[in-house]
Design a protein that fits this description.
Mean pLDDT: 96
Bound molecules: 2'-monophosphoadenosine-5'-diphosphate
CATH superfamily of the largest domain: NAD(P)-binding Rossmann-like Domain
Oligomer: single chain
Structural class: alpha/beta
Shape: globular
Distance between the termini: 12 Å
Low-confidence stretches: none
Number of strands: 12
Strand order of the largest sheet: 2-1-3-5-6-4
Number of domains: 2
CATH class of the largest domain: Alpha Beta
Strand content: 15-25%
Radius of gyration: 19 Å
Largest sheet: 6 strands, mixed
Number of helices: 10
Length: about 300
């Protein structure tokens, strides 16, 4: 049996949503959303669309022409989509990135559910950030943007550590103005991170360090800096437990991999398209089975 797959029937009345990306073959989103549709008995289906960047405009016109209810957008298209939207939510406009397109009567609305998905994932583990809480974010790429923006909305006191410090400075200069949060930029080194983590409540790894196929690697976080009051979030979910999370667990920290953020950003998109409350437990189980099936490939 192919784990993670759900049997759905497609009829003349079926509403279609999907994911556009390049590549898109390994996306867990079809398994996640189709399991939700099937469980709720909804006449909806979610399909993958492999869209090369040069075909974005035609693909988006296809949403209208084919009357799709909407799409998710993934790497490398998220930052290319905003100019093609009829409307952007404030969040998508501020980020310059769209991961969810909602089609309403010929109009395409671009939203970004990654940041709220990240905050909802932490809340699922019982971590509710208070204004002024110190958060150390590793990385300054696309995932970091969404995370940092969400942390600014929560009023966090943010420290970004990135290999390329100029990239982190640019991110801070772009996102911080007009918010109540604070951002400092530091270098990605053991001694600096040890110091920064002392009074931090949350450490987030948004870099790809430790991801398959190099699970033996980890960001330069000193093990002794992983104190019990620190929650460690690694956005990576392949491997299921990165070296950073293994060490966090062994040091008694609370921790989370990237699956819950994937589930929560998907659940928010699901609700935007359907106006139906998403079954997060079903979606999580579907993602987990899909990923287990994939690692056995
Ligand atoms: P994503 O959309 O997943 O965030 P990205 O935009 O390519 O992907 O960003 C990747 C992040 O991982 C960046 O912060 C990158 O650091 P640089 O800005 O210095 O390139 C970080 N990263 C990737 N490989 C790394 C490595 N070997 N060591 C440290 N940081 C690394």
């Amino acid at each position: 049996m192919n784990s993670g797959l759900t049997l759905i029937s497609v009829r003349g009345t079926t509403r279609i949503v999907g994911v556009m990306g390049y590549p898109v073959k390994h996306s867990a989103s079809p398994a996640m959303h189709n399991a939700a549709f099937a469980t709720l008995g909804m006449d909806w289906a979610y399909v993958p669309f492999e869209v090369a960047p040069e075909n974005i405009s035609a693909a988006l016109a296809g949403i209208r022409a084919l009357n799709l209810a909407g799409v998710n957008v993934t790497v490398p298209l998220k930052e290319l989509i905003p100019p093609f939207m009829d409307e952007l939510t404030d969040r998508a406009r501020l980020l310059g990135s769209v991961n969810t397109v909602i089609h309403r009567e010929g109009r395409l609305i671009g939203d970004s559910t990654d940041g709220p998905g990240f905050i909802a994932a932490l809340a699922y583990e019982g971590l509710i950030l208070k204004p002024g809480d110190k958060v150390v974010v590793l990385g300054a790429g696309g995932s970091s943007r969404a995370v940092v923006r969400a942390l600014l909305e929560a009023g966090s006191n943010i420290v970004i550590a990135n290999r390329n410090e100029e990239r982190a400075e640019a991110l801070a200069a772009e996102l911080a103005p007009g918010t109540s949060g604070k951002i400092a930029v530091v270098s990605l080194t053991e001694s600096v991170l040890r110091n920064a983590l002392t009074d931090a409540v949350l450490l987030v790894n948004t870099t790809s360090v430790g991801m398959h196929p190099k699970p033996e690697e980890m960001p330069p976080v000193p093990v002794d800096a992983l104190h019990v009051g620190l929650f460690v979030s690694d956005l990576i979910y392949n491997p299921y437990e990165t070296r950073l999370l293994f060490l966090a667990r062994s040091r008694g920290c609370r921790f989370q991999n990237g699956i819950e953020m994937l589930v929560r950003q998907g659940a928010i998109a699901f609700e935007r398209w359907t106006d139906v409350k998403p079954p997060a437990d079903v979606m999580r189980n579907a993602v987990q089975s899909y990923l287990q099936g994939r690692s056995a490939d």
